[in-house]
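Hi P.,

Sorry for the delay on this. The queue was packed all week, but I finally got your sequence through. Input first:
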Amino acid sequence: MKPLNPPNKEILLKQFGKRVKEFRKAKGLTIEQTLDAEFINSRSYYQRIESGESFPSLQNLHYLSKRFGVKLSDFFSDIKIAQKRSSVKGKISHLLESLSESEAGVAYRVLVSALKFKRARN
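Then the structure:
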């Protein structure tokens, strides 16, 4: 099996930061209300986390999960890991992932028809 290219770190940090901000806002907290003397005690550090410029330590991540009332895994549940897809099969697979079930059905029928046409000409 061909190894995957590693995901883009900047994209992952941005997506993670967006999740942190979503959880904070869902709790109705300001940045100041999120800070804690023992863990995340700097507004600028916290803003770097939310903006995707920094990733918190495991201790700070645990603190945030408790502060927001979410599981650690919730920070990562909606993050899409975009892999570089250089092969045609990879590009097709990526495209299919973004389609609804009905759109995927149409794409499948088009692909089957195109393959039948190509094979008939050979």
